[in-house]
Amino acid sequence: MGINKSRVEPIVFHTFNGLLMIFIAIVTLYPFLNTLAVSFNAGTDTIRGGIYLWPREWTTQNYRAVFAGGTIFAAFWISVARTVLGTVLSLFLTSMLAYTLSRKDYILRKPITIIVVMTMYFSAGLIPTYFLIKDLHLLNNFLVYIIPGLISAFNMIVIRTYIQTLPEGLIESAKIDGAGDFRTFMSIILPLCQPVLATVALFIAVGQWNSWFDTFLYASSKQNLSTLQYELMKLLSSSMNTNSSPSVASGADMGQARNLVTPVSIRAAITIVAALPILVVYPFLQKYFVHGLQLGSVKE
Known about the structure:
Elements: H1 5-39, H2 43-46, H3 61-66, H4 71-102, H5 109-118, H6 126-135, H7 153-164, H8 168-176, H9 181-192, H10 194-210, H11 213-218, H12 228-240, H13 263-293
Helix pairs in contact: 1-13, 4-7, 4-10, 4-12, 8-9, 10-13, 12-13
C-alpha cells in the first residue's frame, strides 16, 4: 500500500510547526528565566558565571537589598496611582477625541486631525517643554505624571481607525432614538471598542509604569513623588558605581548583605521587581491585545 500524502503532509506540517513554536518559546523565555535565576542566586557566586535556569546558591538577599531603603514601597504606590489614573484618563479622553474626529459631519475634522498628527513628527524639545511644565505649575506636582500624556496622537489614530470600521447604522439608529453624541459614545461606541481600548490601555499602562525620566526632570526634589522606576534607577546607578565593592546596599540593617550582593545580582532583582506587575496584568488583557493588533490586517 502506498503512502497517503493527504494524511502525511498535515502530520509533518503540525509536527514542524509545533517544534518551531517550542523553540521560539524557549528562546523568548530564556532571558527572563535566566534573570530570575540570577536574582535568587548569591551575588558573590554569580560573579563566577555559569548561572542558566536555576540558582546555584539560593538567597533572597538581592531582594532584601532592593527593599532595604524603605522608599521602594511608597514609590510603588505612586507608580500604581500614576499608571491607573494616567491610563484611565488618557484612554477616555483619547477615545473621545477619536470618536469626534471619526465623524464625517464634523467640519473641523481634517484641520484638527492634521494638528494632532503633526505632534507625532515635531516637538519643541526638552527645554521648552520644561519651561511649559514650570509655567503650568506642575513641577513637583503629581499631575505632571498625568496631564502631559492625556492625549496620544498615535493612540487616537488607532482608536479612530477601529471606530470607522463600526457599522454607521448603529450611530444613526441611536440618533433617531434621541441619543446625543455623548450618550452615543458612552452607550454604543465604548462597549464596541473593547478590543482596541484594551490594546491601547496596555500600551499606555506599560509606558506609565516604565517611565522614570519625567520624575527625574520634574519631581526629583520631592521624595514623596518618587516613582518605583526612578528609585530602581537610582539603586541601579549606585550599583554600577560600586564595581570595586560587592555591596550596593546601605544602612545598618544591611550590614550582613555587604558581601552578598553585587551589581549583576542586584540588577537582576531590579529587573524582576520592575517587570512583575506588568506580567501579572498582561494575561488578563492578552485576548483583547491579540485581537487589537490585528486591526486593519484584513479588509472585507
